[in-house]
Automatic annotation (TrEMBL):
GO terms for biological process: L-threonine catabolic process. It catalyses: L-threonine + NAD(+) = (2S)-2-amino-3-oxobutanoate + NADH + H(+). Pathway: Amino-acid degradation; L-threonine degradation via oxydo-reductase pathway; glycine from L-threonine: step 1/2. Residues 49-285 form the NAD-dependent epimerase/dehydratase domain. Pfam families: Epimerase (PF01370). Coiled coil: none annotated. The gene is tdh2. InterPro entries: Epimerase_deHydtase, NAD(P)-bd_dom_sf, NAD(P)_epim/dehydratase. Catalyzes the NAD(+)-dependent oxidation of L-threonine to 2-amino-3-ketobutyrate, mediating L-threonine catabolism. Its EC number is 1.1.1.103. This is L-threonine 3-dehydrogenase, mitochondrial. Belongs to the NAD(P)-dependent epimerase/dehydratase family.
């Protein structure tokens, strides 16, 4: 712990030194680093968190987990969509477009934000249908939050993905450091995010943290247009119509993770002391399965589930270029990452959530 504090004090003095050398002229958008008394270290006991793109598949659950630890008012969800009433009841929500730098800055300053979780994005499959918009949200939006995080000494979390790898990457397993030549605008923008964040960390001391999430499986929210969405949709279909048409080949293996593992990994990683982080971008893994394998597991509970396969060329192409498994040994070693859900636990949990939800609104189960 002492080493950690000493390293962090040394680091802060380096940052101040570099600030002096760059402070001859600056504008609010110019990159700078000021780790003053309110640095993220000293505030790590009770951060003030802003989540961008928070109304998608992942944001609401993460906000709930953070609120349990840091208090309802200390975690602000934001998005460009109108939130449902139950989300408003859970805690603070504000409108924030990541393309509007001035508005974002106002939010950060007025609310004393110390941790920024940057979730807004256009995911892999939808990104390919509108490359320009995807580039704007995923790259211009990222630049805005990077500038803001530096200007305001925030700890910045940006998720990356299995989509940050490409056909020339090692696929089974993909390690943290290897060739990354993705072939989607989504993947390209995520590699850009990883590299920009790490560059600003090494050059100016930005406390940038990035996890490469596998496909995330959640019972509470609908998927946002990714290539792993079938693994969420299949549970809805299994209990409603009893039939799922899968857009991937039955043997397409991809890394996946239960949403509560994903949220816990994010919170634990954000809480990890800086001195434990030998990398700034880590793979995290939990399970890796094919459509065929998840169907077999679901059939243990619902033997009549019928699945047909109609591979969609866009999504199949994307999936075939992604890792089949993630090597997450660095995350396990450096900050103690360990998943809780294997495939049987994930299937049992998803089915029980969907059953309860359907029962609560008087819908039958096929
Ligand atoms: N869900 C997964 O399986 C998965 C896997 C790997 C990585 N990730 C990453 O995690 C993050 C969250 O993923 P998700 O599944 O919740 O995504 P999602 O697509 O469900 O949600 C993204 C949100 O961003 C919002 N958004 C779009 N444009 C915006 C703008 N201009 N300003 C502000 N918000 C805007 C959307 O309204 C949406 O609510 C993303 O960065 C994604 O790349 C997700």
């Amino acid at each position: 712990m002492k080493t950690c504090k000493r390293a962090s004090a040394f680091f802060r003095s380096l940052c101040r030194f570099s600030l002096l050398h760059r402070s001859m002229s600056w504008s609010p958008r110019q990159i700078r680093c000021w780790k003053g008394p309110e640095s993220s270290d000293s505030l790590s006991d009770c951060p003030r968190v802003l989540i961008t793109g928070g109304l998608g598949q992942l944001g609401i659950g993460l906000a709930q987990m953070l609120r349990q630890q840091y208090g309802r008012e200390n975690v602000i969800l934001s998005d460009i969509k109108k939130p449902p009433a139950e989300v408003l009841d859970m805690g603070p929500f504000v409108y924030a477009d990541v393309l509007d730098y001035k508005n974002l800055r106002e939010l950060v300053v007025n609310n004393g934000i110390t941790w920024l979780v940057h979730y807004s994005a256009m995911l892999s499959a939808v990104g390919e249908t509108n490359v320009q918009l995807s580039r704007a949200i995923n790259i211009t939006g990222l630049h805005n939050v990077l500038d803001l995080a530096l200007d305001n000494s925030m700890r910045l979390f940006v998720p990356s993905t299995i989509g940050a790898f490409g056909p020339s990457s090692p696929r089974d397993p993909a390690p943290d450091l290897c060739i990354q030549r993705p072939r989607t605008i989504y993947g390209v923008s995520k590699v850009h995010a990883e590299l920009m964040g790490e560059y600003l960390h090494h050059k100016y001391g930005l406390d940038f943290r990035c996890l490469r999430y596998p496909g995330v499986i959640s019972a509470y929210t609908h998927p946002g247009g990714g290539t792993t969405d079938y693994a969420v949709q299949i549970f809805h279909d299994a209990l409603s119509t009893g039939h799922h048409e899968c857009y991937l080949h039955p043997k397409t293996r991809l890394p996946m993770m239960h949403i509560s593992d994903c949220h816990r990994a994010t919170v634990e990683f954000m809480q990890a002391p800086e001195c434990q982080l030998y990398l700034r971008t880590y793979n995290i893994a939990a399970i890796s399965f094919t459509p065929e394998e998840v169907v077999e597991e679901i059939r243990k509970h619902l033997p009549h589930l019928r699945v047909t396969y109609k591979p969609d060329p866009i999504r199949q192409n994307i999936a075939d270029s992604w890792p089949m498994r993630f090597d997450d040994s660095n995350a396990r070693r450096d900050w103690g990452w360990e998943p809780a859900f294997g495939l049987p636990e994930l299937v049992t949990d998803m089915l029980s959530h969907h059953r309860n939800r359907r029962a609560s609104v008087d819908l039958g189960v096929s």
